[in-house]
Write a structure and sequence with these properties.
96 residues, 75% helix
Length: 96
């Protein structure tokens, strides 16, 4: 299974994107696991920001899968995955 990593990461990125789309369309706070102590003043904007954050985190996963599929070196694929995810998580914290 030469492209196992790519297939698995594409599926994972797709699941994240579908979850983000469902959140953005529904706008329901009930679809987000949260602490009982969380104080959310504006649920609609929180859900939209959370959906954007989830979709943003899926981007480096999809990029690393694409680079692995075309045969890039493993160190480059992992660097894209780790550094891209760290950058996207930082940006996502600014969105929510």
């Amino acid at each position: 299974m030469e492209h196992g990593y790519s297939i698995l990461m594409f599926v994972f990125a797709g699941i994240l994107l579908i979850y983000g789309a469902i959140l953005a369309i529904s706008g329901s706070l009930n679809l987000i696991p949260k602490s009982d102590k969380a104080k959310i003043s504006d649920p609609k904007s929180y859900v939209r920001g959370f959906a954007a954050a989830v979709a943003l985190v899926a981007v480096p996963v999809a990029f690393s899968a694409g680079f692995a599929y075309v045969g890039m070196p493993v160190w480059l694929v992992l660097a894209i995955l780790i550094l891209g995810t760290a950058l996207c998580l930082w940006v996502a914290t600014q969105l929510v």
